[in-house]
Write a structure and sequence with these properties.
The chain is of the alpha/beta class. It is built from 11 helices and 11 strands. Helix content is about 30%, strand content about 25%. The structure holds iron/sulfur cluster.
């Protein structure tokens, strides 16, 4: 039986936009600009983009840390803004987020077991003995031996601290975990171990992940589907293998062609695409296609109208005027 249940979206995102005010009157930062997608139960949904693509803002919005400016977000069919304060607190346990820097989430003066128990206490579980047992169980599940319980964060390596953070999230038995660059700071040798741990936990607990990263080689190995973001918008969305082997959007093609690891034969050597310049400011995005100022294939029409994300092959969506030509 498939791990993924496409009839049961854990997240439904519809035309979601997030803007932030700036010091200048009437000027906003358009961090996320009208994105729509579903994340299905049991899947790993990769989100990839350069710095400034809006992927981190989107990740925070998916777990209700940032409210949408426009559009709709349903978590397990529920609109979080419709819940009472108490109901929202309970609902939020199902939707967790992990960040790149475990130090930011760990109190240096708290023993590891206390840090892992903390989310249960915050959630109102008062039985200390039961909380400690649950924390030790979660630690064991992520490969942390019992003797680590009495240690402090400074006595652990980066990979071990990241495991503590995962154990903390697991104690609440979430449905979905947003992982924002969670392996970016780890040595390459440890990175594989932690990614394998995520995969094992998914099989065991039926978890759903949104994996946010700038590194295509990380998401392509573990994701079922990948969304490519640029300047707050979705450029391409499709099955991981199809998107990695036959990308349809010039931006995805450029990201793939910059990869040092095996790339599609058709894009090697002379067909390598070198992205010029920086991502434009989200305070002043280009007219038409957001990618047009760096796109090697841009034509006049690209400045006139914004391409709509369109399904070119079943399940494979692209926002480009030239896709399919
Ligand atoms: Fe490039 Fe035009 Fe396609 Fe945008 S719409 S990606 S500028 S070809």
């Amino acid at each position: 039986m498939s791990r993924i249940d496409a009839s049961s979206p854990v997240l439904q995102v519809r035309d979601l936009s997030i803007e932030f005010p700036t010091q200048q009157r009437h000027v906003t930062v358009k961090a996320v600009n009208g994105v729509s997608f579903d994340v299905y139960a049991g899947e790993t949904f990769g989100v990839i983009g350069e710095s400034g693509s809006g992927k981190t803002t989107l990740g925070r919005a998916l777990v209700s840390l940032i409210p949408p400016t426009r559009g709709e977000l349903l978590q397990g069919g529920v609109q979080p803004s419709s819940l009472s304060k108490k109901a929202l607190r309970e609902h939020r346990r199902d939707f967790q987020i992990l960040f790149q820097d475990p130090n930011a989430a760990l109190n240096p003066r708290m023993r590891i077991v206390d840090s892992v128990m903390e989310p249960l206490e915050v959630a109102g579980h008062r039985d200390q003995q039961a909380n400690r047992a649950a924390a030790l169980q979660a630690m064991a599940r992520v490969g942390l031996p019992t003797e680590f319980a009495e240690r402090y964060p400074h006595q652990l390596s980066g990979g071990q601290k990241q495991r503590v953070i995962i154990a903390r999230a697991l104690t609440l038995k979430p449905r979905l975990i947003v992982c924002d660059e969670v392996v970016a700071a780890l040595d390459v040798s440890i990175r594989g171990e932690v990614l394998n741990l995520f995969a094992d936990l998914q099989r065991e607990f039926g978890l759903t992940y949104v994996f946010i990263t700038h590194d295509l080689s990380v998401v392509s190995h573990i994701s079922d589907r990948i969304a490519v973001m640029y300047l707050g918008s979705l450029m391409e969305l499709g099955p991981s293998q199809a998107l990695s082997e036959a990308p349809l959007h010039p931006y995805t093609q450029a990201l793939l062609s910059a990869e040092p690891i095996p790339i599609p034969r058709s894009m090697r050597d002379s067909q390598r695409i070198h992205l010029q310049g920086e991502v434009p400011s989200p305070m002043n995005p280009p007219s038409g296609c957001p990618f047009r100022t760096r796109c090697p294939k841009a034509i006049e029409a690209c400045a006139q109208s914004r391409p709509v994300l369109t399904e070119h092959v079943p399940g494979h969506w692209v926002a480009c005027h030239l896709a399919g030509h």
